[in-house]
Specification:
With 169 residues, this protein is an all-alpha fold. Helix content is 62%, strand content 0%. 9% of the residues are buried.
C-alpha cells in the first residue's frame, strides 16, 4: 500500500497544493478546491467597497484609498469617474454640482483638492500643531499619533526623517 502523496514544500504553488490535498482526501478533489481557492480571490475583490467621503476627513487618505482600489480592481477611466462620484456625499458631493458633461475622474479629483486639499490649510495646521497639548486622560500613543499626523500635514514637503524629528521635539 502506497503512502499518501507528498505535500509540495512550496506554499506558493496553489495547483500542486490543491492536487495533493485532493489526493490525500481521496479522489480528484483538486478541481473544486482549486475553483474555491481562485473563486475566493475573485469574490473578495467584489466585496471591496470604496467608503463615502463627506469632506470632514483627510482628502489625502480618501484619494489614496481610491487610487489603490482603482489599481487593484483595474478600473478604466469611466469606472473611476462613476465610483468616485458615487462615493461623494455632503459638502464633498457639492463639487459635482459644477462639473460639465465632459468631466472625468481627474476633474473631480482636482475639485476635491481645491476644496479640501491640505495646501490651502498649511498655516492652519501649523497653528494647530503649536497649540497642541496633552489632554487629560489621553494616552501618550494617541498624543504621538495626533502630532505625527499634524506634522505631516503642516510640513508636507519635508522628508519623513526630518518630519519625525520635528514631531519628537
Amino acid at each position: 500500500m502506497a503512502g499518501p502523496p507528498a505535500v509540495p514544500t512550496n506554499p506558493n504553488n496553489l495547483l500542486s497544493l490543491t492536487t495533493a490535498i485532493g489526493s490525500i482526501v481521496g479522489g480528484s478533489a483538486a478541481g473544486p478546491l482549486l475553483a474555491a481557492a481562485t473563486g475566493a480571490s475573485k469574490k473578495s475583490k467584489s466585496l471591496l467597497k470604496l467608503l463615502q467621503y463627506n469632506g470632514t476627513d483627510s482628502v489625502v487618505t480618501f484619494l489614496a484609498k481610491f487610487t489603490c482600489m482603482a489599481e487593484y480592481l483595474q478600473w478604466n477611466e469611466s469606472d473611476k469617474f462613476h465610483h468616485l462620484c458615487a462615493s461623494l456625499k455632503g459638502a464633498a458631493g457639492q463639487v459635482l454640482w459644477g462639473i460639465g458633461p465632459n468631466a472625468n475622474a481627474s476633474t473631480v479629483v482636482g475639485l476635491l483638492w481645491t476644496r479640501f486639499g491640505n495646501e490651502m490649510q498649511v498655516e492652519h495646521f501649523h497653528a494647530e500643531l503649536r497649540a497642541r497639548r496633552h489632554k487629560p486622560g489621553e494616552t501618550l500613543q494617541m498624543l504621538y499619533l495626533d502630532i505625527c499626523k499634524m506634522v505631516s500635514l503642516a510640513h508636507q514637503l519635508l522628508a519623513s526623517k526630518l518630519t519625525m524629528h520635528v514631531a519628537k521635539q
